[in-house]
Amino acid sequence: MKLLTFQYNDKVRVGLLKDETVLDLYEASNGSLPSDLLSMLENYENYKKDIAELTGEGIPLSSVKLLAPLPKPSSIRDFYAFEEHVKTSRGRRGLEMIPEWYEVPVFYFTNHNAVIGPEDSVQIPTNCKRMDFELEIACIIGKQGKNISEENADDYIVGYTIMNDWSARDLQAHEMKVGLGPSKGKDFATSLGPVIVTKDELETFRTDKSYDLQMTASVNGKVISNGNFSTIYYSFAKLIAHASRDTMLYPGDVIGSGTVGTGCILELGEEKHRWLQDGDEVELTITGLGSLRNTVRM
To answer: Cys-Cys crosslink for 29: which of 33, 84, 137, 251, Cβ 3.0 to 4.6 Å?
Structure first.
């Protein structure tokens, strides 16, 4: 299934994407299903069979505005799980790889109230001269759990979506010299969408620890980044096990992978592409998950 949040006739609803139409799950169920996706995820195990069996006349996709599938997630933890990205980005700053990276998957909490969706504009922060995108994949947690084992972690995943962890690199570099953060370098926006694809739809792409999904990023129609989800060093099972250690994960929590190799300008270098400017259109595409497009504005 492909779950989404959309706006139509001034109503914001949760929908199911079928071909080029959107089925309003609240209307199709005569109000027995919630009208927002976060509420639906809080009881997803009981709802998913009903969702799959619903029928009805869909709204043309071209007639709705797609919002972020989870406009206000419970939380967003963003990890640092692709080795190529970490090595290359550190090398660009004259830093060696640190052995601790191989010992523990680290993450930071980003602003779950600053989520934007497909086609939305993202504002360049004040005094930022080095605006960057980050090409990531995220999983959505579908049930509550604490101290989740790697072996059971997949049971807690509803599905996957595309994530753009926008970064003000100059602000980030300055504030992180203090030894804490990032904060204002990341606080302003995170893109999610266009849909959440349930994990059963991705089974044909499964590898030993992830999925064989091509990940690309383009700026103004030119592809500048090309990676693959299968190159991730830490599986999502490991990320979830670590995130849930001694703390509770909840339905609607977002777990970000971190940037895929080549997936940002910091890693590629300015010789490959300049920093983002007013009017630039950034499009992230992942096999099976669609495309997430945003325009950068001053």
So the answer is: 33
Q: What is the rounded distance in angstroms from the CA atom of residue 286 to the CA atom of residue 116?
A: 18
Written as six digits, the tokens of 280 are: 């630039």
How high is the pLDDT of residue 92? 80
> Cis (ω within 30 of 0) for the bond into 34?
no
- Report DSSP state, residue 276: B
- Strand 157-164 versus strand 135-141 pairing type: antiparallel
Pair (117, 37) in one structural domain: no
- CA dist 220 and 105 (Å) reads 33
At 268, the amino acid letter reads: L
* pLDDT score, position 268: 95
Distance CA 100, CA 93 (A): 18
- Rounded CA separation 252/72 (Å): 9
Of 40, 67, 94, which closes a domain? 67
Give me the residues of the chain with pLDDT under 50, please.
Answer: none
pLDDT tens digits, 153-175 = 999 999 999 999 999 999 999 99
pTM: 0.97
Distance CA 148, CA 75 (A): 17
Distance (Å) of CA 96 to CA 81, 89, 140, 176, 195:
17, 10, 33, 17, 37
- Domain that includes residue 18, residue range: 2-67
- Domain count of the chain? 2
| Contact in structure between 185 and 172 (CB atoms under 8 Å) | yes
Note the pLDDT of residue 219. Answer: 98
